[in-house]
Amino acid sequence: MAKNQPKLTDMTEILLQQVIQLEQTIKQSEKTHLDTIKELSNIKVTVNVAELRQIEKEQQQRLRNEFEQFHREITKNNEELLKVHKAVSTKRLLYLIVLNIFLLFITGLSMYVAVKNTIDKSQYERLENEKEQLINQLENVNQFFIENPKVAKSFNEWNKKK
After folding, report:
1. Where exactly are the structural domains of the chain?
2. What are phi and psi of 46, to 5 degrees?
3. Which of 98, 104, 117, 145 is the most buried (most CB within 10 A)?
4. Quick one: pLDDT at residue 3?
5. What is the pLDDT at residue 157?
6. What is the pLDDT of residues 123-136, one digit of tens each?
7. Cβ atoms 138, 144 nearer than 8 A
8. Do 125 and 118 form a contact (C-beta atoms < 8 A)?
9. Which pLDDT does position 1 carry in this prediction?
10. What is the pLDDT of residue 2?
């Protein structure tokens, strides 16, 4: 609806063109009046001043009515443009709110994953340490059996009986 409406600058330009045209018409009318007055000064003619004043009033009224109509149209278009602007502003604001919520959600999810990975990493490090300790104990036991073959032989026999 707003796309078909003329812009305020276009309407202002039309108004200015009409004012310029009016000024030109007034100048031309004045020139014509002056020429007519010069001609009439030589001729004895009686002019009905009341009729001329009536014509002048009618012309002024016509111009006033056209200007008021033009002013009403500009006001109406301004109100419609304001409504469209508010609607667009509301849409942008809603878009920004949704975008902020989305980014906040992603940030929270990233923090959760980071904390979870930190916890998993600490558990992994603890298991690695336990594994190293068990390997050290196993090496100590193997070293003991290597140094004491009699004990190793009796342990193997005991282990087979079990």
Report:
1. 2-111
2. -100, 135
3. 145
4. 60
5. 86
6. 888 889 999 999 99
7. no
8. no
9. 46
10. 52
Query: What single DSSP character describes residue 154?
Result: H
- pLDDT attached to residue 133: 94
* pLDDT tens-digit map of 40-54: 777 765 778 899 999
How far is it, in rounded angstroms, from Cα 10 to Cα 113?
57
Cα distance between residue 10 and residue 4, in whole Å: 12
Instruction: Report the amino acid identity of residue 56.
Output: E
Give the separation between CA 157 and CA 35, rounded to whole angstroms. Answer: 144
pLDDT at 160 (0 to 100): 84
**Are 10 and 77 contacting, i.e. CB atoms less than 8 angstroms apart?**
no
Residues of the chain short of pLDDT 50, as ranges, are 1
Question: Quick one: which of 84, 102, 29, 88 has its CA closest to 60?
Answer: 29
Give dist(CA 75, CA 136) in Å, integer: 90
Name the one residue in this structure whose structure tokens are 């509301």. Answer: 90
Residue written as token pair 């050290």: 136
CA–CA separation, 29 vs 22, rounded Å? 10
Contact residues for 145 (Cβ-Cβ < 8 A; gap 6+): 151, 152, 155
The answer to whether residues 47 and 40 touch, using CB atoms and an 8 Å cutoff, is yes
